[in-house]
Amino acid sequence: MDTTQTLAETLKLERLEVNLFRGTTPDEEQRQRIYGGQVIAQSLLAAYETVEDRVCHSLHCYFIRPGDPSIPIIFEVDRSRDGGSFTTRRVIAVQKGQQIFNLAASFQVEEDGYEHQSDMPDAPGWDAVEDDSVVRRRLNPNPPAEDVDWIDRVQPIEMRTVGGRFDVVEPERRDPHQQVWFRARHPIGSDAHMHQVILAYASDMSLLGTSVRPHGVSWRTPGFQSASLDHAMWFHRPTDFNEWHLYVQESPSASGGRGFNLGYIYRASDGALVASCAQEGLMRMRKPRPKA
């Protein structure tokens, strides 16, 4: 991503009609398919464009087709319901006349209520953990030409994986648990909705990889195929995503060519649980094609 452009600017949408929006993928992020967190964030942003004075408390979405990063995405918002306390929106993301993704989100007026939460687990502080980009460069001192951009790209989200990132070329087997410190690299500003949008963007990072850890494979393993299938997120408390947060991840199950993952996002400053996530992803080895 161009370091002169903030993530908020990158995710910005163009309004085409009352409930119709257009988003793009920056040139620096042109890959085989669109990063899932981008389309989650832009869909939530499109929904917010049709909601006033309410805050998203949950979203549920499905990844239907790989997105093409070289062309715009059209986001169509269905104003499902505007109730006394809750507002519901459905967003369909379209490319080439086909759905690539859909999202349902619920928004609520702010109100007080009972409170409790699980405690933030023990973890080394963010300042005691190496930046993932440093670890990535150390594990790949002489990368092939096609990997140089991936290794050197300045990511819009700072990430520090407790215990270090595993080697994607020769991955070792690890427990299906991990802790990742993360925060937005660029200032987000005072818009609380945008902090939610960028947190949703970041929530797709590293979560699917949790279910892969016990199996000694990575996206670089020949024949291995992985992709996010669905993603759900619950926002419990407002937060400033320019601060450090601990993303606690676990994968209680993998079966049927799918891995299931749970994530809990805690604010470093006070241990508040600000959001929770659940995701299922494809994880399988492609069967070799029979010789002709």
Automatic annotation (TrEMBL):
<feature type="domain" description="Acyl-CoA thioesterase-like N-terminal HotDog">
    <location>
        <begin position="30"/>
        <end position="108"/>
    </location>
</feature>
<dbReference type="InterPro" id="IPR003703">
    <property type="entry name" value="Acyl_CoA_thio"/>
</dbReference>
<dbReference type="GO" id="GO:0006637">
    <property type="term" value="P:acyl-CoA metabolic process"/>
</dbReference>
<dbReference type="InterPro" id="IPR029069">
    <property type="entry name" value="HotDog_dom_sf"/>
</dbReference>
<comment type="subunit">
    <text>Homotetramer.</text>
</comment>
<protein>
    <recommendedName>
        <fullName>Acyl-CoA thioesterase 2</fullName>
        <ecNumber>3.1.2.20</ecNumber>
    </recommendedName>
</protein>
<dbReference type="GO" id="GO:0047617">
    <property type="term" value="F:fatty acyl-CoA hydrolase activity"/>
</dbReference>
<dbReference type="InterPro" id="IPR025652">
    <property type="entry name" value="TesB_C"/>
</dbReference>
<dbReference type="GO" id="GO:0009062">
    <property type="term" value="P:fatty acid catabolic process"/>
</dbReference>
<comment type="similarity">
    <text>Belongs to the C/M/P thioester hydrolase family.</text>
</comment>
<dbReference type="Pfam" id="PF13622">
    <property type="entry name" value="4HBT_3"/>
</dbReference>
<feature type="domain" description="Acyl-CoA thioesterase 2 C-terminal">
    <location>
        <begin position="176"/>
        <end position="282"/>
    </location>
</feature>
<keyword id="KW-0443">Lipid metabolism</keyword>
<keyword id="KW-0378">Hydrolase</keyword>
<dbReference type="InterPro" id="IPR042171">
    <property type="entry name" value="Acyl-CoA_hotdog"/>
</dbReference>
<dbReference type="Pfam" id="PF02551">
    <property type="entry name" value="Acyl_CoA_thio"/>
</dbReference>
<dbReference type="InterPro" id="IPR049449">
    <property type="entry name" value="TesB_ACOT8-like_N"/>
</dbReference>
